[in-house]
Amino acid sequence: MIIDRVTEPLKVGVLGFGGLGQAAARILAPKKEMTWVAAADRKGYAYEATGLDVDGAIAAYRGRNSVGYLEPQGTLSNNSIEDLLSHGDVDGYFLALPNLPNTFMADVARQFIKSGWQGVLVDALKRTSAVEQLLELQNELKEAGITYLTGCGATPGLLTAAAAVAAQSYAEVHSVKITFGVGIANWEAYRATIREDIAHMPGYNVEAAKAMSDEEVAALLNKTNGILALENMEHADDIMLELAGICSRDRVTVGGVVDTRNPKKPLSTNVKITGRTFEGKISTHTFILGDETSMAANVCGPAFGYLKAGMALHRRGMSGLFTAAEIMPQFVK
Amino acid sequence: MIIDRVTEPLKVGVLGFGGLGQAAARILAPKKEMTWVAAADRKGYAYEATGLDVDGAIAAYRGRNSVGYLEPQGTLSNNSIEDLLSHGDVDGYFLALPNLPNTFMADVARQFIKSGWQGVLVDALKRTSAVEQLLELQNELKEAGITYLTGCGATPGLLTAAAAVAAQSYAEVHSVKITFGVGIANWEAYRATIREDIAHMPGYNVEAAKAMSDEEVAALLNKTNGILALENMEHADDIMLELAGICSRDRVTVGGVVDTRNPKKPLSTNVKITGRTFEGKISTHTFILGDETSMAANVCGPAFGYLKAGMALHRRGMSGLFTAAEIMPQFVK
């Protein structure tokens, strides 16, 4: 069995405490196999070996924009990740950070390498180019004893893994087509994520999207009736499926529709995997996410599933870079 | 990367040479990463280090009921597995054997343990009780240096893996419901598989089904117009998902419809994974197999994907028993 019979809960940290980080903390709260011991944002961090209080941390962040204000475990810091690494005892981190700028996640990985910390890192990166930057670090991660799992959110992540499983029926995979629908009632709770989406729209890029004020985002959404329609997005599902040997990246396409004014999804998120069987038949497997599952559930759930799987690898001395397409996530109780 | 950059093709054997074993050989033939070097059935075996000829082997089996008649690589033997193990150099075997009687697969595993052979074994077992027998062997497999992956066909296998991925969105999994449709034009080519299906029908068991003559099977199918409707089947998906910590086995149900007179599937094979998200929403993810994919493609494709993944584990010194729900299969080129 690759599943570890965990006797002690894993001590887990969450970096970034926006919408995604807060959802991650809520997901961890009832888990028996993981304890949420650490959080960090731009302005501070909080650490408590016996577990942090989710409501308190969220209140601190909402009220004063940093978990560093959480009493008594919070500490304000301009080097929050570095300081947390030197103070906390953490088995693995979920990097719930918006990758803005696009080099940010790789920079964070370098910070971990430099610190001498050993453990499991999981990100929910979106862009192909961000994974390419991490690929350049794979030897350093390996030597540092860090087991880094990239692309472990919803897409890439959950849907990439489903595509990797589905591909098994085929002698050749012709196309992997991911179409997501996201409905959020209040985009303001996901400011960074929305800007990442806008960066995928024609006429925008990462820098332009990041530079937009909340008013400019609101003005754009007013023009589109709250809808962001995204096609041929740069999503790391492509490089991940290519690295897993399933198909070349040009056969993978990602598009979607984000409704920023309605929690109901404008369409059911799905991935279609088309290929040729050994008998020469062309067919398509389809994996469809239930509409009632939120972006937060579909991103953070898999992220911790991969963190648990990563810990099993780490304990067997396997470090370096892995993707969601090559590891089976493990269910976290 | 867990994916090995394979420099030399894996030397793969197929045990059992009925419909499934023959399809397995056809799937292997064009692969660059695997060479089909060995086959065995009840009456003989064939081995060729540079690769066996698929058409020749199938002709030998169809004409005279054993690959042992293949010239010049075939050998007739009443201890075909044992003899093959002492003569061949094989990295991994797909056990394409009907598990009749229900203790057969565990007996074969014992033969491998006893022989001193080390490598990867993959089965496409169906029944929960058969996996339970293998669980009793897990320490022996580990000590023997055998990496054994069980339940690696379609269901259990492909659909179990899809369920394990899908479960990640949920805080709790309420049900996993597998419904398969199988259409085969000529059941005579899958004599053993059909008997395994019949064994799941009310009023039958494994022994009774195995004892049926072809005429008795044909008479039964005449009564049902060629349709076998199966409900609440004993399928190892349940124990595999339980072992992976996803849900208790009573939450997993498997049923299906087999049309023995029509290659078109009577319904699209699918798995529905229902659970509760961390926010308290109940939802269902669905994974649907394309109708054009055959049972052979959906069983043998995953089996070799798990064999490749098993080899990556084996080379890292990981032996013992694993299931399709805890390992990500790797695509075989």
Walk me through this protein's architecture:
Chain A is 35% helix and 23% strand. Chain A has 333 residues and is an alpha/beta fold. In chain A, the strands form two sheets. Chain A has an eight-stranded mixed sheet with strand order 4-3-2-1-5-6-7-13, sandwiched between helices. In chain A, strands 9-10-8-11-12 form a five-stranded mixed sheet, covered by helices on one side. In chain A, helix 1 (19-28) packs across helix 12. The two termini of chain A are 17 Å apart. The model of chain A has no long low-confidence stretch (mean pLDDT 93). The interface between A and B is large, with 63 and 63 residues.
Helix content of chain A: 25-40%
Class based on secondary structure composition and strand pairing of chain A: alpha/beta
Total number of helices of chain A = 12
Distance between the termini of chain A: 17 Å
Strand order of the largest sheet of chain A: 4-3-2-1-5-6-7-13
Short description:
Chain A has 333 residues and is an alpha/beta fold.
Compile the SSE list and pairings.
The structure is a homodimer.
Chain A: E1 10-15, H1 19-28, E2 34-41, E3 44-47, H2 54-64, E4 74-76, H3 80-87, E5 92-95, H4 104-115, E6 119-123, H5 128-136, H6 138-144, E7 146-150, H7 158-166, E8 172-183, H8 191-198, H9 206-211, H10 214-223, E9 227-230, H11 237-243, E10 252-259, E11 270-276, E12 282-288, H12 295-315, E13 320-323
Parallel strand pairs in A: 1-2, 1-5, 5-6, 6-7, 7-13, 8-10
Antiparallel strand pairs in A: 2-3, 3-4, 8-11, 9-10, 11-12
Helix pairs in contact in A: 1-12, 3-4
